[in-house]
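quick one before i forget lol
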Amino acid sequence: MRNYENAMEIMTERFGKDNIIAIATMEDGHLYNRMVDAYFEEDAFYVVTYMLSNKMRQIGKNPEVAVCAVDWFSGQGIGENLGWVLDPQNAEIRLKLRKAFAAWYDHANNEQDKNCCFLKIRLTNGMLIKDHHAVRYQIDFTSKLAKMSENWGEFK
């Protein structure tokens, strides 16, 4: 259990603020990838986006996505449209995202447009790397378990 807690501490430290990640989706047998600003909390990345965008249409058809961050994380998850940013159910995450993305949030988003929405990517698994591969974590977000490998050794 401690491996999972350690991995989550690193994830929160690295990604609990504005970060650029790649999100890959699939449609009609083709992969599509794009870079987005994202914020990490607990077991998910959150993105402010547009409901009519290609990524949201693709996630609507197939919610399985892959993500990759420059800061040594890659994984898979399930994308979920949380709906309009001003929907009362989004009040708590909206405050966090407005703070994380404060430098550009109001310039890039029209919250009055009901198509301005939040995407939640609930992570299912991933690989987190620390210290240039000296430590690696295989993370199972669903079971809240992680295995650790040091210096390319076995995962334990």
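fyi The longest strand covers residues 116-130.
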